[in-house]
Design brief:
The protein is 12% helix and 51% strand. By secondary structure, the protein is mainly β.
Length: 253
């Protein structure tokens, strides 16, 4: 499975809207982090090279694995991301040799999951208010790939410990708190949040959602996670993991 998925034709406008270039993006200077908690200040000093324009809208190519029905399957995906606005994630999975093609979307305050076997046969289609709340937590947690968002005036920070800081991010009518854990050198170790999720019986509930960073890469001045494992519960990187992602390319807009 070598092909990245195409952006669905009816969603190309959403893709372009999310990746609208950040207006008047200033260059980064470490002084801009002076009022932030220590862990946040260390992370941003590590994640953004001095002079890098603070563009927060992110375009990525990714590959990895996703757990479906207890088994890991390969995926290839693309993503348009703005943690303050939403995302579009076209993804292609191969299950038992058959392509499962679809997308996850949060845009204009609405969310949708649609995935079709062979690109035709519906397998997953979710479009309801609970999904918006869940998708908002995902968008906010992906601030790890958009460090410039951390300095936007709409977000706020609080210390959560010597190596942790919590950022509050408004997105899709929700305010999502994400706690980031940074090493002494500022490299990102993990992040956690509470995410509204649907259980097997169809009911919705709050669960811990987290991601553990396994590797970082620098893309044009931004040093971000390039290999992560994410999932639910206290053991989100182990027994609770459902996705492993590698970032192949990242462009800030």
């Amino acid at each position: 499975m070598s092909r990245s998925p195409a952006v669905p034709k009816h969603l190309r406008g959403s893709w372009a809207d999310i990746l609208t270039p950040t207006a008047d993006a200033p260059p980064f200077h470490p002084d801009q982090t002076a009022q932030l908690p220590d862990a946040a200040r260390r992370w941003l000093g590590h994640a953004i090279a001095a002079g890098t324009l603070l563009r927060r809208r992110i375009e990525m190519r990714q590959h990895g694995q996703i757990k479906i029905a207890g088994r890991w399957w390969p995926i290839r995906c693309r993503q348009a991301l703005d943690p303050l606005q939403g995302y579009l994630w076209p993804v292609r999975t191969s299950i038992a040799g058959l392509p499962l093609i679809g997308f996850d979307l949060l845009a204009d305050g609405e969310a949708e999951l649609t995935h079709r076997l062979l690109g035709v046969i519906p397998v997953v289609h979710v479009q309801e208010p609970g999904l918006v709340r869940s998708a908002a937590a995902r968008a906010a947690s992906e601030i790890c790939w958009s460090p410039a968002t951390a300095l936007h005036p709409a977000v706020s920070w609080n210390a959560a410990g010597p190596d942790e800081a919590t950022v509050s991010i408004p997105v899709a009518g929700e305010t999502v708190d994400v706690t980031l854990r940074a090493a002494r050198d500022g490299s990102l170790i993990s992040l956690t949040t509470r995410r509204w999720t649907r259980s097997d019986d169809g009911s919705w509930q709050w669960r811990t959602f987290g991601a553990h960073v396994l590797q970082e890469t620098t893309f044009a001045g931004f040093t971000v996670p390039s290999r992560v494992v994410a999932g639910y519960g206290d053991d989100f990187a182990g027994a609770g993991a459902f996705i492993r992602l590698v970032v192949d390319d990242l462009i800030a807009h």
